[in-house]
Amino acid sequence: MKCFVTGSAGFIGSALINKLSSEGYDIIGLYHKNIPKFRSDNVIYYRGDIKNIDSINKAIKDVDIVFHCAALLRDYGRKKDFLKTNFEGTKNLVKLCKKYNIKKFVYLSHFNYKNVNKISYYSKSKKMAEKYLVDQNIHENFPCIIIQPGNVYGPGESVWVLFPLEAIKKNRIALIDKGNGIFLHTYIDNLVDALVKTIDSKKAIGKIIQITDGDNNITWGDYLNHLSNLAGKSHIKSNISLRKAFIIAKLMDYLNRLFHIKPILSPTSVSIFSNKKKVSVKNANNILDYKPRINYEEGMKRVESWLREEGYIN
What we know:
By secondary structure, the protein is α/β, with parallel strands linked by helices. It contains twelve helices and eleven strands. Helices cover about 45% and strands about 15% of the residues.
């Protein structure tokens, strides 16, 4: 079985390739700019761009299953850039999968937070790609599976580990709504386990499956204060009300679109940090026999060990 992984230099893509390699699969990893560091005899890397179908045509020719992990991942930027990469790029891959009769297409999407599709070009583009894939499955029997993970974290992760840690160390962080939002923690090994399980699952085809660690009890306040403790800081005292956070975020989003100023707070991040929506993994268990191996406590121990090894904390 030969697997094709887009976004092979990214946090999730590289972890997936490592796992697939250890289980004996042959892998072709697609990267855009920076060649991945992981090396193995059963892994070949190709440089290409999903926006340019000709650049990936040869790479995907002889594979059995496609894991589409690549995306333009930001909570700010131009609409056309997100649509070109996340929507049109996905359509390019589907076109090639049909051409070469690929057996299965696994799409890494993201959790749909309340109202985010209305305010985030990233979320909107991913939602459009999801709808396109569902339509392809219904009308053309295209063998796709959509995986929606929560907040993916672990050693080496930037968005939910290094970025908030650095903000904490610089005393440039505040809780939103007293940190009461639910942190849908999804340890990287758990997500990769779920992705690998899609390979042999017939029941998963045509399904949208949400993946987290199965625990809705950890708040963003719990998590961010855990990082603060690791950084040798006291608990975070600064707080912004939900209403004020949205006002600030929308203003920063407006300034970004006018003057390309990088926002420190976005409407998307406010929605994520104030999330009250719980996620069940029963569906994932029924379809994929998914059972998260790493709980929050163990996940944070591994994150702490990595942060110490890399010198991010003392």
